[in-house]
Amino acid sequence: MDYVPASDNDIKHILDTIGVSSVDCLLNMIPEKILRKPVDMPDGMSEHDAAKQLKKMACANHDIDRYPCFIGAGAYDHIVPAVVRSIAGRSEFATAYTPYQPEASQGTLQAIFEYQSMICELTGLAVSNASLYDGGSACAEAALMMINSARNKNRILVSQTLHPFYKAVIKTYLQNIDAQVVAVPAKNGVTDLDRLDGMIDDSTAGIIIQSPNFFGCIEDIKPVSEKIHRAGGLTAMVCNPISLGVLASPAECGADIAVGEGQPLGIDLSYGGPYFGFMATTKQLMRKMPGRIVGMTSDHHGSRCYVLTLQAREQHIRREKATSNICTNQALMALQGCIYMAWLGKNGLRQIATQNVIRAHYAQEQACSVKGVSLMYTAPFFNEFCLKIDTGAKPADIVAAMHDKHGLLGGIAIESMGSGMPDGLLVCVTEKRSREEIDLWVDALRKSI
Predict the structure, then answer these.
(1) Most buried of 197, 210, 305, 418, CB within 10 angstroms?
(2) Spans of all domains in the chain
(3) Which pLDDT score is estimated for 1?
(4) Which H, E and C letters describe the chain, residue by residue?
(5) Could you tell me the pTM of the whole model?
């Protein structure tokens, strides 16, 4: 146990205290079949040989560098500019932690402030926090926020078109408090506004609705917000940040809260994390927002400086009055999002979003030219769409064949995510997919059904 920082005298004192003469005597108390069991391990290797072996093992992974990826559903294969990793990898950022002494962390606070400013500009809302864990927890925090902001209202409406994983997280968060989660039915891939009318009552604290939604369809959020606001409730809009380069912002849609997964903003897929969740809201709801907010002010010399303007009390002495139990903010991931947005700028983000639209629609048109394949829904879409397979072939088998025979990650069988749609194939096309790759995907689809 040479990793334990104990001297010989320390060890003797410990052994004397517990009444044994040596470390071996202490280990003899462990049953022999446990202690003496041989460990099946290869002989040691040199650094070079070990690196070579690990690289060989890594080549068994079917990664997106070798397999063009048409999978979306909340995690997207976008181009990540080299500058994002270069700046975020600097030691000043990579080794930083939550600023418990904010006055000594001006660089970290400024980076967070810039991130918040960009999220506010992207969503059109007044205030952003310093990020959350991921898109799912951001949705759940929005639900808590709406309940905490309402008087005598404990009912949260959730559109059926919301990502199923996000719905599961919301239910987990709310299961032990006095709150109801009610599903709003969908029609043609979007929220059924006619059914929504009859579901809003005096106990409705708000609604959570996603656009583009899980099926890729763009929702008409404004009438939803108007209906909810007339009843005294709030609207939380879940959105893909890249889509906001060409679609109306949450503020323009009448949303009170905007949340979503920040992974599209320059974060690698990385086996599903770490990512970050973003949240923005109106000024009126600012003090109900979880997490922390960095503000800009002046010091006693009149120089610009940054401070933690507001922070939830979750890890301080008044934790029972906290707005949330969120106790970190994924700052390094949010920083990558900040670098990505700053690097692209307004025009760059619009161009990326436009490329997503153009390439996704090209792929959809080509796919629907394949016999037995049609578009599941007629609603407009951004970079994801749902195909209906009419040949009787199972989407899961199609995806497996595209992978095994054609070297493509061809999409997701929606049924595998609990949608109850055995003939649905969800496909995503980002700016990273070339026309050649799309044509290969269409050909593989044709051969796999």
Answers:
(1) 210
(2) 1-38, 82-341, 356-448
(3) 42
(4) CCCCCCCHHHHHHHHHHHCCCCHHHHHCCCCHHHHCCCCCCCCCCCHHHHHHHHHHHHCCCCCCCCCCECCCCCCCCCCCCHHHHHHHCCHHHHCCCCCCCHHHCHHHHHHHHHHHHHHHHHHCCCEECCCECCHHHHHHHHHHHHHHHCCCCCEEEEECCCCHHHHHHHHHHHCCCCCEEEEECEECCEECHHHHHCCCCCCEEEEEEECCCCCCECCCHHHHHHHHHHCCCEEEEECCHHHHHCCCCCCCCCCCEEEEECCCCCCCCHHHCCCCEEEEECHHHHHHCCCEEEEEEECCCCCEEEEEEEECCCCCCCHHHCCCCCCCCCHHHHHHHHHHHHHHHHHHHHHHHHHHHHHHHHHHHHHCCCCCEEECCCCCECCEEEEEECCCCCHHHHHHHHHHHHCCECCEEHHHHCCCCCCEEEEECCCCCCHHHHHHHHHHHHHHC
(5) 0.87
